[in-house]
Design goal:
Layout: H1 2-14, H2 22-30, H3 32-47, H4 53-74, H5 84-104, H6 106-109, H7 114-148, E1 151-153, E2 164-167, E3 171-175, E4 188-192, E5 198-203, E6 214-221, E7 227-235, E8 246-252, E9 257-262, H8 263-267, E10 280-288, E11 295-304
Antiparallel strand pairs: 1-11, 2-5, 3-4, 4-11, 5-10, 6-9, 6-11, 7-8, 7-10
Length: 306
């Protein structure tokens, strides 16, 4: 049983799951801590069959932590990346789950003075709460993103920060929209572009766009000039080649414009295969060779039916 559990944990660390969404990947990563905590509880119950309760808890801590070290080390040779921070999260989950298990264990409770029991309960609760926080946050982001359809991202809500990130050193901030902004959103995204090759924003949208005809968004510049921008859309099968994704240039100026892209254009944009509109993996809006003086406003990415 113990060998089977260990082998399963290591296998899950080595397999690259075919997920289209970065938000889903973040959720899977967040499950490290509670997952190892549950493995530690299972290991403790196995050790309890032949050992003193105290020895069983110590053996479970050592065994499960070493299992995590081995899993991270083996990831060096797999498609996934090893991360030392995962060991910290694993330790947090192990400590939290075993502390709570000890508080519920009659044989352990009988050996603890009331102050020691209270400390163990408080420490275990805090550790487990910290370990579960990113799980709850990422699960909420995924659920809220699905509920927001047909809006992909509005930049109005704090939870949406889990759906976008800067491209390279671009500075992103949400600001109050101009007075004449055509959408009554609370905030819009301001991109302060950097003087680098590609400067912009990466968006992690809801992946299934089937049933819709187009994607639209608002954009404008704030410096009184026109700028050539590019929008890129790629699916989960993208091989990182230019011709294996949708690319479209557009010009923006001081007057905000709603750009609309028919999804048939996206579907037919790649060579030698059909673009999968049910597995959209990302949207990138960027400028090539920005000077570092540009500020671009974007807002209200949404799917539409004509």
């Amino acid at each position: 049983m113990a060998v089977a559990i260990g082998a399963t944990v290591i296998a899950l660390h080595l397999v690259e799951f075919p997920m289209t969404s970065q938000a889903a990947r973040h959720l899977i990563d967040a499950l490290h801590a509670p997952g190892f905590g549950l493995v530690a509880v299972g290991a403790m119950l196995l050790f309890r069959q032949r050992n003193d309760p105290g020895a069983a808890y110590i053996a479970a801590i050592i065994t499960t932590f070493l299992l995590g070290v081995a899993a991270e080390a083996l990831q060096i040779f797999s498609p996934r990346n090893a991360d030392l921070q995962d060991l910290g999260w694993n330790a947090l989950g192990i400590a939290g789950c075993l502390a709570i298990a000890a508080c519920l264990d009659p044989k352990v409770r009988s050996r603890l003075a009331r102050p020691h029991f209270a400390v163990l309960l408080i420490v275990g609760t805090i550790a487990l709460a910290i370990a579960l926080k990113p799980v709850v946050q990422n699960a909420y982001v995924l659920g809220a993103r699905a509920m927001a359809l047909p809006v992909l991202v509005s930049f109005d809500h704090r939870w949406e920060t889990g759906l976008y990130r800067p491209l390279d050193s671009t500075q992103l901030s949400t600001v109050t929209p101009p007075d004449d902004w055509p959408v009554q959103n609370l905030r819009v995204m301001a991109m302060d572009l950097s003087a680098i090759r590609y400067s912009g924003i990466v968006i992690d949208p809801y992946p299934d766009w089937t049933g819709y005809d187009s994607i639209s968004f608002l954009a404008a510049s704030t410096d009184g000039k026109e700028h050539k921008m590019t929008i890129r859309i790629h699916d989960a099968e993208h091989n990182h080649h230019y011709k294996d994704r949708f690319n479209k240039a557009f010009r923006i100026g001081p007057k905000e414009v709603r750009f609309k892209i028919p999804l048939v254009e996206v579907r037919d944009s790649v060579e030698n295969r059909r673009f999968d509109l049910s597995r959209i993996a990302g949207i990138v809006v960027f400028k090539v060779d920005a000077t570092g003086d540009e500020r671009i406003l974007i807002d209200d990415f949404r799917l539409e039916n004509n």
